[in-house]
Backbone:
């Protein structure tokens, strides 16, 4: 596998490019994977699979009958490049990409900075 030297500028506010360089072709920073579609923020629930994490995304849904919002959550499988280091409990930003596996259609872009 070729080692990708240059870091792409994804222009995502609050997310810095990783300091490490990886040779993962499915890395949005060093590889050829393009990020398109939605950007979501969530908390890492599991990081047991190889190069895959489960992210819990919480959002508000409006119920018109009661004219109130309810909290909902969804678990999303996301690809974890070698250059991004996360542990369960970390708040991360994930971006939509092409399907990498049957259930993996997002990639971890980085850890969300406080503030």
Residues:
């Amino acid at each position: 596998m070729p080692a990708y030297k240059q870091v792409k500028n994804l222009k995502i506010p609050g997310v810095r490019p990783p300091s490490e360089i990886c040779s993962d072709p499915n890395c949005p920073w060093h590889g050829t994977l393009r990020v398109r579609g939605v950007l979501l923020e969530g908390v890492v629930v599991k990081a047991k699979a190889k190069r895959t994490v489960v992210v819990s995304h919480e959002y508000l849904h409006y119920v018109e009958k009661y004219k109130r919002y309810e909290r909902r959550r969804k678990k999303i499988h996301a690809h974890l490049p070698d250059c991004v280091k996360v542990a369960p409990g970390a708040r991360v930003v994930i971006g939509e990409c092409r399907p990498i596996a049957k259930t993996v259609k997002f990639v971890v872009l980085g850890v969300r900075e406080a503030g």
Notes: The CA atoms of residues 42 and 57 lie 4 Å apart. The mean pLDDT is 91. The chain is about 0% helix and 40% strand. Strands lie at 39-46, 52-63, 68-79, 91-96, 106-111.
